[in-house]
Design a protein that fits this description.
This protein has helices at about 1-40, 40-50, 90-95, 100-105, 110, 125-140, 235-240, and strands at about 170-175, 180-185, 190-195, 200, 215-220, 225-230, 240. By secondary structure, the chain is an alpha/beta fold. A four-stranded mixed β-sheet has the order 3-2-1-7. The longest helix has about 40 residues, at about 1-40. It contains seven helices and seven strands. A hairpin with a 4-residue loop joins β2 and β3 (about 190-195). It folds into two domains: about 40-160, Cytochrome Bc1 Complex, Chain D, domain 2 (Orthogonal Bundle); about 160-240, no CATH class.
Amino acid sequence: MNRLSSAVRKIDVRVSRRLAAVGLAAALVSGIVTAQAAEGDPNRGGRHFKACLACHSIAPGEHMTGPSLAGVWQRQAGTAQKFSRYSEALKRSGAVWNETTLDAWLRDPAAFAPGNFMKIPGIADAGARSDVIAYLKVISEGSARSPKPASQRSALAAFPDLRKAGPAASVAAIRHCRDTYWVTTASGEVIPYWEFNLRFKTDSSARGPARGKPVMVGAASMGDRAQVVFSDPAEISTFIRRSC
């Protein structure tokens, strides 16, 4: 009986050692995978970043709906120069952008800084987040190994240069009567728009219209909507003539 107990104990020891070895191996593999995920791939990150280009540029000082992300690495949240649309929630966060803070922000912006203006729900995939973070890091550093940007051109290059608008898009006059705007173009065409379907916008950038020379830009729908872009908001009310 004692011999049987001794044999059983020896088997238990051998099994325990094997299980420990398997557990150690699994932990090592897990650690390697985690480390690889944490490092991220900037080339993959550049491809993921295409989804961000609608709101963010990587060109210095080129702000869109969101701030330029050039130089974002180690920058305090809410401090990009000449960007004035930060939420108070983000400015008060005191966060400095690095691997940890960017991961938390990209995972769940609403939880990171409740009340901020970021509209996306977050990136659930940890690997994708790591890739985007790696991309932002090398772009910020201007590293020689930086991948090609998600778009080689400036993000704003896709926007039309309104200073080069032709006569058909250049607005010579706007008349308002009851519920209708009558837009006269530089080519002489007069187009009526239901007042709810005509939008007035401003663009003070270098690609915006010259002062006093608004430009009409088409909108969606069936051609019954348009946008008139001015250089400055003060021009809008003075440009429109009320007459029936």
